[in-house]
Amino acid sequence: MSDSYAHTTTVPGAASMETTQTSGQAIQDAAIPVIDISGDGDQEQVARELVDAAVRHGFVYIRSTGKDIPAQAIDDAFALARKLFKAPLEEKQSCNIQKNNRGYSGMHVETLDPKNQRIGDLKEKPTPRAFNFGEFVNGKAQQPLPPTIASDEPQIAEFFAYCHRLSLKLNSLLGIGLGQAHLPSRGPSGTILRLLRYPPLSALAAAAQDATTPSSSNKQAAPASAADVRAGAHSDYGSLTLLFRLAGQPGLEVQQILPTDGARAWAPVPVVPAGTESDPSPPVLVNIGDLLSYWTGGLLRSTLHRVVFPRPGGGPDQQEKAGEEPRYSIAFFCHPVGTFPLEPVPSERVRAFAAAQQSESGGGGAGGEEGESNPYAERKVLTADEHLQMRLRASYLDLYDDNKDAGGQKA
Ligand SMILES: O=C(O)CCC(=O)C(=O)O
């Protein structure tokens, strides 16, 4: 066995306890391992490290230094996102999101944290911010595309394919790490490539100003401040999410449990973890989604995360200046084939975990890293499609309001 390619490191910022005081709570960077999957050596070692990261953190940085997805393809995808969001509003609205989860997500349409949010996330105001691409068939989108990016269809299809291949590779490594052969299946799935644009603080300040103007009809807008979240606390629906971010555009935070008193705290996730500064692009941040957590009886961890404005006084990756610019990110939400039954993954480790949880809780369901209950392991769904539909209904309240048709969404 060689260890020259299978590198797992913990972000040193976490170990050095670099902290920011916010509301009296000490915040440190999330301790997320970096795993290099670019080597050809002992895949079992890499697979074990990947599963350990998925069990402990639910998040892992995947460093493949351009081998799995060329840095140029990532740069081009971000350039395409800028072009798309600059397109005229009517173009994007003509592709409004549908119940198949494809298309353009308009103002206040998606509420990521339905219990705690009054209105949709800031990424939905004051202008539309998200575009979901579903699967391509023979390089062709199976949904309307805004004319501005119609000629870029081959590029989007290629990026989708890169992401899909990387997801399959990670799935396969997880399978190896769980001691279970990976059984690839083919067919339509809910997999989505999503381009995201979050408005800068200045745009929100203008919206707030508008809201306080007596003649304004925009009474719903909340006052904008750096305390606002850019995207509410949520976990992802699918099996794996690949997240691409831009250096200098921080904001992602994961919920962690403080070892000191067990309290929950939000920990920033640096875009460029230590040791990867010279890579051609930041490592891909990968997280376990609810479906895979469910599928593994809660062994793999689906972790709450959110996006905030950069914190004043944060580390070098947390410059407040970044809040003055729009923030772009790209997420690839990988889902299994829709008809696939989500019976527990036949892995000895999954079985042992489920049995341990069962005896600990007296049959009350699976627990997470710190022994707390994992709701995604307790849900009763049958197939990947049913799992997705359950989550879409909770997130797209307007779209699934049976008294409204999809074309009547706010933008
Ligand atoms: O933009 C980000 O950094 C995170 C995006 C995200 O969590 C999501 O779209 O589910």
UniProtKB/TrEMBL annotation:
Keyword Oxidoreductase among record annotations: yes
Gene Ontology molecular function: any one: oxidoreductase activity
Region called Disordered, residue ranges: 1-24, 354-379
Keywords: Iron, Metal-binding, Oxidoreductase
Domain of life: Eukaryota
Biological processes, Gene Ontology terms: small molecule biosynthetic process
Fe2OG dioxygenase domain residues: 188-336
Gene3D superfamilies noted in UniProt: B-lactam Antibiotic, Isopenicillin N Synthase, Chain (2.60.120.330)
Family named by the database record: Belongs to the iron/ascorbate-dependent oxidoreductase family.
This protein's name: Fe2OG dioxygenase domain-containing protein
Organism: Thyridium curvatum
Source species taxonomy: Eukaryota, Fungi, Dikarya, Ascomycota, Pezizomycotina
